[in-house]
Amino acid sequence: MTILVTGATGTVGRQVVAELVRRGERVRALTRDPAKADFPAGVETVRADLTDPETLVPALEGVTGLHLITFGGEYFAPLTTGPEIVALASKAGVQRITVLNGGGPSDLQDAVEAGDVDWTLVMPVEFMSNTLEWAEGVRTEDSVSEPFVDRLSAMVHEADIGAVAAVALTEAGHAGRTYALTGPETLTVRDKVRILAAARGKNIGLTELSAAQAAERWRRAGMDQETIDFLLDVYGNTPEVGRTVVDTVERVTGRPARTFAEWAQEHADVFRARD
């Protein structure tokens, strides 16, 4: 069977592709710019755009499993083409759909749930890879500056997200399930900085920003006020789902969720000063 992965060049999409390849599946990776794609040997790359459903028709030929994201286009806006995508998938004979959704309800998710193809929702909390935002500051100044440094997160390794999606796309028993995904522990910003320092072999300083200082930094980075307000609320009042460990990764994949220490070791070089 062939499995089509949309968002294949993204943080999670690449992991879905890699896990499916590891499992010996035939994978077709969808991207708006195949020339910039870099996938494992044997992965077929196709050009299509989720905001233009008709471009999916050739990509869906012979596909039995479909991994979907809920946004698309150059500016990653929420998709409004869900009904058309689901109808095309059903017509093509797709048997299973997974949807990556970390941002709450979406039009695409609604369309998938209302359709006639078996679906599984994959809903991770904070990605461990978000920590890469600190890389430049750590490399150049050996420091991290963040607000609410005691906030808790049950952050999840992106490879575990990909592994859960791959299982749901290739094995029975996951239809109609919503899988919240976390790592195996809750960590503060202080914990993450300490673990990163150990992985790279050099101390990292931590400066706590006030809410006003954080808002100003984000404003200078080009964020609008709505996004800034959202971040201040989430960081200052992390929802319970974002700081509560669940065992979904282990139940679905049969092995424990990866730790942040493992992620830090894998990415240690990114946080080391460059010669």
Automatic annotation (TrEMBL):
**UniProt-listed InterPro entries:** Ergot_Alk_Oxidoreductase, NAD(P)-bd_dom_sf, NmrA-like
Q: Which Pfam families match?
A: NmrA (PF05368)
Looking at the record's lineage, which domain of life comes first?
A: Bacteria
Which stretches make up the NmrA-like domain?
2-97
Its name, as the record gives it, is NAD(P)H-binding protein
Highest lineage ranks of the organism? Bacteria, Bacillati, Actinomycetota, Actinomycetes, Kitasatosporales
